[in-house]
Amino acid sequence: MNLIRKFMTNQRQTLLSGIVILFSAACMVNLPPTPPPPTIATIRLPTPTAGNSYPWQDAADMLRGICFEAANDAAGQTFVIRNAEEHIRFYNLADNSQLCRRPVERVPFDFSEGQVLAGLWSRGMGCKARHEVIDWARDDAARTFSMNLRLVIEGDCPYELVRPFWIALEGLADYDISITVTERVQE
Predict the structure, then answer these.
(1) Which tens digits make up the pLDDT trace of 28-43?
(2) How would DSSP label each residue in 63-117?
(3) Percent of the chain whose predicted confidence (pLDDT) is above 70
(4) Of 95, 97, 98, 157, which shows the fewest CB atoms inside 10 Å?
């Protein structure tokens, strides 16, 4: 009987050892590595800006301190700012309107080389808005610069939008400057 127990104990140990080895072997199976996700090539194209393709620079950042309420109130008016004093008066106009919760951030601009800030805000309802230049003309004999814009409103979101279009023009301090939104398009 003792021999039978010893045999059974050895058989159990052998069986348990076999199971442990079997499970260990299963854990050590070399599976092929998970392939990395496919790489999607991205090509970064330069973002077209007014400064890249036109004889002026985008100056919307110069007016970043004007709050939404003041810009909305001024929408539809064209502003031409020819010197530092007019620039200060422009900011004072926004501050004195009391439409902004706090004084507007005043961003300095260098007018010393005869540069001019000109622009406007346009309003609409939608998801987003942008201005597109339809045409522009500079007449040195008549001392005029004129530009026609298209306001493109995208989507049918119920958002009030106010879109800036501000540019810095060089050498036009004594020109008659006009910027007009002549078309409105809903996409």
Answers:
(1) 555 555 555 443 332 2
(2) GTTS-HHHHHHHTT--EEE-SHHHHHHHHHHHHHTT-SSSPPP------TTS-EE
(3) 72
(4) 98
Q: Where are the domains of the chain?
A: 50-186
Q: Angle at the Cα of 170 (from 61 to 106), degrees rounded to 5?
A: 30
The confidence score (pLDDT) of residue 42 equals 28
Q: Which residues contact 84 (CB under 8 A, 6 or more apart)?
A: 109, 111
- Whether this prediction's pTM lies above 0.90 is answered by no
Longest dimension (CA), the chain: 125
What's at 177, amino acid-wise? I
Contact 120, 108 (CB under 8 A): no
Provide CB contacts within 8 A for 43, sequence distance 6+: none
Q: Which contiguous run of DSSP H or E holds residue 19?
A: helix 2-27
CA–CA separation, 108 and 99 (whole Å): 22
Q: Which of 143, 145, 141 is nearest to 168 (CA)?
A: 145
Task: Tell me the one-letter amino acid at 48.
Answer: P
In whole angstroms, give the CA distance from residue 145 to residue 164: 19
Pair 151, 131: CB distance under 8 Å: yes
